[in-house]
């Protein structure tokens, strides 16, 4: 016989979004039950953001050492200890883990249950031998690595983001299949750690990003690793004697690539198949669970946050969603998910974006847009730091409304902040152009990109005529 528990909120999934809801709701006085079938902290803590950024941090340090002679600093005996690198990555996970631990949430008053939760009716969930009845349910099960249908892949050992960070030695040749953010970040990091890396992308790398900005990333990385774009794979054969995977490229049977290690990074799939959604009258498709702009499903007692929706698959999106459902459920406010979600890919250099790309803006507005570029090669701080790769690119309409902004630079993700503030608060180009920055700072590039909106008018022949007239009026 199942034990029956009643609660205010039942959250399925203890990743970043689920934990955010649980923490806020229980501290506001709600009775909360949290279900997790695997690891508390979810993908972000254990297999995603935290370990990947720890790996990238190591790659950055290696690159700093390699570049130090340009600053007059000589280094000797440079080497990479991959066992110690593994220790660094997992020590960083362990450092953050207590904040996401069962003990912390139980101390807050959350009822944490380890097990697989599945709906048994529109208003009940079964986990282990407990049946949970809740006033509202929140699905926050996230996503998992999507494995492509490549003949022979099933017989070859391969990594995904869930296992790649368990490496304790240097691969002879890492082949990454997938040209999205996950594949490119890991490929870039290992390449900067002196690993031979080949990346194979079915289309272009970072296909959703602004083409001009991606070209800057491509040009920088092509000297670090081999990038094969618009390349399909015919099959994979595995030699278990030499422990080598041969990747045979499509329509070119004479060409194959030998990989000592293989990483599959071909996107994410929503983690929804254990939920028994049909029983709960919840509509979904292969891309994710269907929700309205309040993040509510076809079952009005059930809300969804994060990757399992199948749209913006970012930790910060899940945390934003958490705030939306808190307002809807606890405060009965008609909160809607309407903010533009920024994104960043942490390659070296980084690429960050919010709003429309140039290509998207031209599809919507045609020629009624203006592209504003300011290269970091013209920024004094970037010059002193020898970090002049990249630029700030802003898309605006003719009246100065900001439609989108993208940055390529080593610090792009941080430099994007003023554009996020401006777009989400309907500020114009003038608001950024009028800022006064300390000198010298990288943020000045944002100011000068915005200021270039006014350059054609300020330096036009008409303005010159006006200034000449005004000067004649002034007396000596």
UniProtKB/TrEMBL annotation:
Source domain of life: Bacteria
Keyword set includes Transcription regulation: no
Domain Pyridine nucleotide-disulphide oxidoreductase dimerisation: 341-449
Cofactor names: FAD
Keywords: Disulfide bond, FAD, Flavoprotein, NADP, Oxidoreductase, Redox-active center
Pfam families listed in its UniProt record: Pyr_redox_2, Pyr_redox_dim
Protein name as catalogued: Dihydrolipoamide dehydrogenase
Similarity field: Belongs to the class-I pyridine nucleotide-disulfide oxidoreductase family.
Entry annotated with the keyword NADP: yes
């Amino acid at each position: 016989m199942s034990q029956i528990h009643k609660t205010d909120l039942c959250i399925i999934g203890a990743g970043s979004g689920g934990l955010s809801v649980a923490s806020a709701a229980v501290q506001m006085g709600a009775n909360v039950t949290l279900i997790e079938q695997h690891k508390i902290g979810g993908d972000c803590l254990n297999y995603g953001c935290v370990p990947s950024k720890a790996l990238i941090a190591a790659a950055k340090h290696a690159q700093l050492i390699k570049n130090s002679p340009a600053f007059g600093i000589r280094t000797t005996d440079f080497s990479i200890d991959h066992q110690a690198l593994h220790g660094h990555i997992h020590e960083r996970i362990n450092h953050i883990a207590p904040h996401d631990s069962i003990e912390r949430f139980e101390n807050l008053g959350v009822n944490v249950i380890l097990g697989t939760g599945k709906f048994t009716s529109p208003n009940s969930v079964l986990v282990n031998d407990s049946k949970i009845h809740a006033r509202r349910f929140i699905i926050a099960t996230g996503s998992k690595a999507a494995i492509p249908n490549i003949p022979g892949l099933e017989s070859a050992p391969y990594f995904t983001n869930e296992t790649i960070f368990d490496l304790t030695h240097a691969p002879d040749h890492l082949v990454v299949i997938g040209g999205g953010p996950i594949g490119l970040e890991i490929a870039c990091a290992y390449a900067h750690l002196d690993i031979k890396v080949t990346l194979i992308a079915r289309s272009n790398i970072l296909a959703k990003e602004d083409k001009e900005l991606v070209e800057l990333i491509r040009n920088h990385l092509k000297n670090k690793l081999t990038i094969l774009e618009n390349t399909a794979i015919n099959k994979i054969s595995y030699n278990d004697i030499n422990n080598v995977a041969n990747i045979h490229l499509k329509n070119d049977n004479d060409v194959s690539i030998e990989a000592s290690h293989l990483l599959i990074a071909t996107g994410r799939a929503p983690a929804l198949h254990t939920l028994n959604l049909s029983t709960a009258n919840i509509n979904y498709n292969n891309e994710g669970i269907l929700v309205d702009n309040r993040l509510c499903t076809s079952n009005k007692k059930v809300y969804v946050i994060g990757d399992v929706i199948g749209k913006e698959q970012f930790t910060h999106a899940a945390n934003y969603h958490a705030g939306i459902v808190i307002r809807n459920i606890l405060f009965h406010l008609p909160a809607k998910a309407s903010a533009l979600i920024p994104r960043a890919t942490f390659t070296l250099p980084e690429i960050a974006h919010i709003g429309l790309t140039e290509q998207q803006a031209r599809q919507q507005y045609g020629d009624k847009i203006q592209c504003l570029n300011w290269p970091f090669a013209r920024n004094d701080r970037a010059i002193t730091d020898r970090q002049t790769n990249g630029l700030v690119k802003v898309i605006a309409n003719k009246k100065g409304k900001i439609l989108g902004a993208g940055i390529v630079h080593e610090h792009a993700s941080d430099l994007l902040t003023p554009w996020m503030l401006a777009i989400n608060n309907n500020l114009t180009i003038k608001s950024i152009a009028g800022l006064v920055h300390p000198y010298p700072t990288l943020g000045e590039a944002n100011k000068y990109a915005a200021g270039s909106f006014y350059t054609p008018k300020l330096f036009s022949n008409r303005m010159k005529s006006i200034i000449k007239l005004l000067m004649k009026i002034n007396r000596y």
